[in-house]
Amino acid sequence: MAQPPKKNFYLLSLGCSKNTVDSESMAALLQRAGFGGTADPDDASVLIVNTCGFIESARQESIAALQELVALKQKNQLLIAAGCMAQRYGREVVEWVPGIDGVIGTRRWMDIVPFIQELRRQKRPQPLYHLPDEAQTVGLDEQGVLRTAVQGASAYLKIADGCRRPCAFCAIPQIKGTHVSRPLASILAEAVALQEAGVQELILIAQDSTDYGHDIGLKNGTSHLLRQIAQAAPDIPWLRLMYAYPGYVTDELIETMASLPQMTHYLDIPLQHGHRETLKRMRRPANIEWVYQTVDKLRKAMPDIAIRTTFIVGYPGETDEEFDGLKQFVRDLQFDRVGVFTYSYEASTPSATVSWQVPEEVKEARRNELMELQQSISLARNQAQVGRVLPVLIEGYGDDVSVGRTYRDAPEIDGLVFIPGELPLGELVPIRIDGAMTYDLTGQVDVLSPIPVIGNS
Question: What are the counts of helices (DSSP H) followed by strands (DSSP E) for the chain?
Answer without folding.
Answer: 13, 20
